[in-house]
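Incident review: delayed structure delivery

Summary: a single-chain prediction request sat in the queue longer than the usual turnaround. Root cause was a stuck worker, restarted by the on-call engineer. No data loss occurred. The affected request and its eventual output are reproduced below so the record is complete for anyone auditing the incident later.

Affected input:
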Amino acid sequence: MKKLLLALLFVSCSPSSGNQVPETTTSTTLVELTLCEKVEKEYISLSNELFVTSFELNDYINNLSDALVEDDRVLFFEDMGKNFDHQNIYKNYLETRTYVYEEINRLYKTNKECPIAGDQEIGDEKVLEAKKELSEFLNNY
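Output delivered after worker restart:
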């Protein structure tokens, strides 16, 4: 009887293979980015900021009615003067676009050794155009 109790005690106190949870460890190695990689990372972050704001504006316009987005866009701009929600979302878009264009332009001017495809470059003309549109909007509303 003692041997049976001892055997049961041993079995109940020993770890069960069905209840064991494997321990997981993760290690991270930090790698220093090159100057051009840092520039590209900043460019991507800025581009994403503009993408999100553009998406929010287009989504807002698209949800104005069940009509085609082109019809909603016409309605959006026609009602701009009397609709503060329209004004606020468009102002946010224009401000974000101007900021992003200025920052991307600065990135290119100060990091010429890190070329990115020309179609991604925002030249002085684009920055001036964005500033002008924002200024006209702020003057009108």
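Verification: Confidence is low (pLDDT under 50) at residues 1-11.
Action items: add queue-age alerting; document worker restart procedure.
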